[in-house]
């Protein structure tokens, strides 16, 4: 039976979203002869009852398919507003579009909202996880994470040469308000001396002692500090009082100020806040592969009428897990006693005082 399925991308953009769209359209069209329509700007498109026609050759340029290496999302995305306040209108919009099923690509926040709408409207929903924070539970990989890590590592590589040339402490602030996966993975891969993440409290004294040891014992005149935007010092440091801990300045600048004040030697510091640079760019080969597998598998789940499922990457393959199970366990945080944290310690990286 021919189906009409919709696909939307919700929350912050990331590399690999267009690869999902490409795989869904190709597999649904070529294998099942279904119609696929895009929902522009996520639930806003449902609210306004708008669709974007999708076809396997819709964006070809002389036979070249640009979706495989295009960052962002051709469908647009939103991550603001009170979506549930317009629930009745969105449910009406879904019915008006005549969809047999919906594939939603999003992080844990946007998927939670869409799942609530799907429950209210009895939608046939399949979810695909995407977030550069990699904090959706039950999946080892979310779309966009690998590309973001590679982008940060490239920045660390570039900043390391300048740090070494000028005997500076380079502080690189990366995204991660509650989960430190980005900082931890990129810091280890980029050869950082210090990695600060939300899950592991640190002390300014411990940080400064580590930098002093690098200089005095190992004659290192520079250092690389990778700090997640949500990293926090131990309670003792917070009780000492500091205006920067109340979000009046970025976490990277806070670290720079504290390093300057705690050292008897003048420390030349520079702060680089990567910000939305981490979200952009051409998707990595791994993100393209995972996105393609997710897209193909999502279509197969619809063909099998297995709904209310989220795709998860486990042991090198895509598997289906109940959406609610993933949401209940999200966000997935770094384990302070986990293998990667222990590896960082074994490499001589300061990652807190635990």
Describe what you observe in this structure.
The protein has 354 residues and is α/β, with parallel strands linked by helices. It has twelve helices and eleven strands. The strands form two sheets. It has a seven-stranded mixed sheet, with helices on both faces. Strands 7-8-6-9 form a four-stranded parallel sheet, sandwiched between helices. Helix 4 (108-121) links the parallel strand 4 (101-106) and strand 5. Helix 1 (17-32) packs parallel to helix 10 (285-303) and helix 7 (204-216) packs across helix 9. The longest helix has 22 residues, at 145-166. The chain is elongated.
Based on the model shown, name its key terms.
alpha/beta; 16% strand; elongated; four-stranded parallel beta sheet; seven-stranded mixed beta sheet; single chain; 354 residues
What's a concise summary of this model?
The protein has helices at residues 17-32, 43-48, 87-97, 108-121, 145-166, 181-190, 204-216, 235-239, 251-262, 285-303, 323-328, 339-346, and strands spanning 4-9, 35-38, 52-53, 101-106, 125-129, 169-174, 194-196, 223-228, 269-273, 309-314, 317-322. The protein is α/β, with parallel strands linked by helices and 354 residues long.
